[in-house]
């Protein structure tokens, strides 16, 4: 590359000791480092990225002097804790590697790395544990942030018949747009904790992990209720998104597809939970299941979220046509509504209400796309008058929005 371009080359690798040089988590951190590095420099005139069992490596040619590239490399390596895992060498036109000028710090204790290496102050297991913790912390924060943004996009999408949006509070008297935003703020830290649990407990039994996830979910529900004065803004989303984030965490550590892992977690104790719901219904979903057999969010999760997967593809289709994320979400809602056995609609309107909602959604979906948003406005007024709210569809929509973002780096 130096010979071809007569310019300096930057070589970006990861400081990962031991035999295992590649996992999806390592690649995730690696690509974050690349993004930070390239953000500080003009567009590369050549770049090559390789991720293999031997590790991740990337090569860049910038139309800059070697010292300028090295300055950016130093900023990335020293800018955050995660930067300690990045190793960016800069080789000038003559083939000489530039010195960084200062000694790197130990990833475990923060002291001079050469002193720790010389004295063997930390064994391999300790170094690997610390590096995994740094990458897991970064990944969990990113996952939680994307779940949070998906919740905001879902509630802000307008119009959504019977649901809280920027137009009105739908068929709800106890919630508004602001309460949904407060709820999302309150549960965001718990999304991070659930993702971290999976990233750290991926080798444990599913029963053990699911027990911890349930406890975090219950804490998240309490935080939601405290933020909304007792209103149930996101109970379904806490359950579904928590499982998907856990599946994503397992994927990053093992490479096993996220949706299959989420489904296996959901299946843990599913039959027992449904038996309990029939015998002693505690929630609206339990009461609907006891009366109609509709499994709602539990069944959707145990099946690998089929409705959300289909909704994700619909979302992508609308976005590819030029619609914003919010408008694409509003247009996707009736596509979900036409097919989903929404237990919230069953609770509020019984079988007649669900049938009316599905038929109405089908009529909207048959219209030219440019006429659908206007039709949704009229249906919103009708749903409000009939006290119908497709809350289950809203949860599926939020999950589809999250899937759309996750599939950029997670194998679903």
Layout of strands and helices, then pairs:
Layout: H1 2-5, E1 9-14, H2 24-39, E2 46-52, E3 55-61, H3 66-79, E4 86-91, H4 113-119, H5 124-156, H6 177-201, H7 206-227, H8 235-254, H9 258-267, H10 270-279, H11 284-292, H12 296-302, H13 306-320, H14 325-339, H15 343-365, H16 369-386, H17 391-406
Antiparallel strand pairs: 1-3, 1-4, 2-3
Helix pairs in contact: 2-5, 2-8, 5-6, 5-8, 5-17, 6-7, 6-8, 7-8, 8-9, 8-17, 9-12, 10-11, 11-15, 13-14, 13-17, 14-15, 14-16, 14-17, 15-16
Give your account of this protein's structure:
By secondary structure, the chain is of the alpha+beta class. 64% of the residues lie in helices and 6% in strands. The protein is built from 17 helices and four strands. It has helices spanning 2-5, 24-39, 66-79, 113-119, 124-156, 177-201, 206-227, 235-254, 258-267, 270-279, 284-292, 296-302, 306-320, 325-339, 343-365, 369-386, 391-406; strands at residues 9-14, 46-52, 55-61, 86-91. The protein has a four-stranded antiparallel beta sheet. Helix 9 packs across helix 12 (296-302), helix 13 crosses helix 17 (391-406) and helix 14 (325-339) crosses helix 16 (369-386). The longest helix has 33 residues, at 124-156. The chain is elongated. The relative contact order is 0.10. Residues 272-280 and 285-294 have low confidence and may be disordered.
């Amino acid at each position: 590359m130096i010979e071809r371009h007569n310019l300096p080359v930057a070589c970006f690798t990861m400081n990962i000791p031991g035999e295992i040089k590649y996992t999806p988590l390592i690649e995730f951190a690696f690509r974050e480092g690349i993004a930070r590095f390239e953000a500080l420099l003009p567009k590369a005139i050549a770049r090559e990225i390789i991720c293999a069992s031997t590790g991740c490596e990337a090569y860049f040619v910038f139309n800059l002097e070697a010292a300028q590239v090295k300055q950016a490399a130093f900023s990335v390596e020293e800018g955050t804790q995660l930067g300690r895992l990045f190793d960016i060498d800069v080789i000038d036109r003559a083939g000489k590697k530039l010195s960084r000028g200062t000694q790197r710090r130990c990833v475990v204790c923060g002291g001079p790395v050469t002193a720790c290496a010389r004295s063997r102050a930390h064994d391999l297991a300790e170094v690997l544990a610390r590096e995994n913790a740094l990458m897991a912390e970064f990944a969990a924060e990113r996952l939680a942030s994307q779940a949070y943004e998906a919740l905001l996009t879902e509630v802000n999408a307008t119009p959504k018949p019977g649901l809280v949006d920027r137009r009105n509070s739908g068929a709800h008297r106890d919630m508004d747009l602001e309460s949904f935003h407060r709820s999302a703020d309150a549960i965001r830290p718990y999304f991070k904790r659930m993702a971290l649990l999976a990233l750290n407990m991926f080798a444990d039994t599913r029963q053990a992990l699911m027990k911890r996830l349930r406890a975090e979910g219950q804490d998240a529900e309490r935080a939601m209720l405290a933020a909304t004065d007792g209103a149930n803004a996101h109970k379904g989303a806490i359950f579904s998104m928590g499982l998907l984030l856990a599946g994503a965490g397992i994927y990053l550590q093992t490479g096993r597809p996220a949706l299959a892992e989420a489904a296996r977690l959901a299946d843990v104790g599913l039959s027992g939970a449904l038996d309990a719901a029939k015998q002693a219904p505690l929630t609206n979903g339990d009461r609907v299941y006891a009366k109609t057999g509709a499994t709602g969010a539990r069944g959707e999760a145990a099946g690998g979220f089929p409705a959300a997967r289909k909704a994700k593809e619909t979302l992508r289709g609308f976005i590819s046509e030029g619609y914003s994320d919010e408008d694409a979400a509003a247009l996707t809602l009736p596509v979900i509504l036409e097919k989903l056995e929404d237990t919230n609609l069953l609770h509020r309107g019984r079988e007649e209400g669900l049938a009316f909602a599905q038929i109405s959604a089908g009529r909207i979906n048959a219209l030219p796309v440019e006429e659908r948003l206007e039709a949704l406005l009229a249906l919103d007024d009708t749903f409000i008058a009939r006290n119908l709210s497709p809350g289950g569809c809203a949860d599926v929509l939020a999950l589809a929005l999250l899937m759309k973002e996750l599939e950029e780096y997670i194998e679903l």
